[in-house]
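Q: Here's a chain of 128 amino acids. Please give me its 3D structure as tokens.
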Amino acid sequence: MQISLDSPASAPQPLSPYYSQVARIEHPDGSALLFVSGQIAEGATLTEQTRGVFETLTALLEAHGAGLADVVNIRTYLTDISRLDEYGAVRRQFLTGTPPTSVTFEAARLFRPEALVEVEVVAAVPAR
């Protein structure tokens, strides 16, 4: 098993130099697990921020030969859980296959004060 940590140059860069965006756990058969750090995005509305988060997640996964269809677990942090339907409407546009395992929390504050949503995922990449 080989472990690598990175912030792919082909994806939006992290907002802080103190963490890596992706941890890749490579198995001997060439398959891998990707642990993607929580992502936030700019935008005036929850819809805009959610769309930006999923666009960033897509870029990070693609940099590792994966896509949203490979996501097996998703963790979502919302500053207002009563807006879950608004978040869910955007999420369904991006996660169109079998839904991954999931947990959603309400958080009083996120990394940046203007952030309304943060999402982290785990993806399973099959051997090539």
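Q: Can you summarize the key feature?
A: The beta strands are 2-6, 22-26, 32-39, 71-78, 101-106, 117-125.
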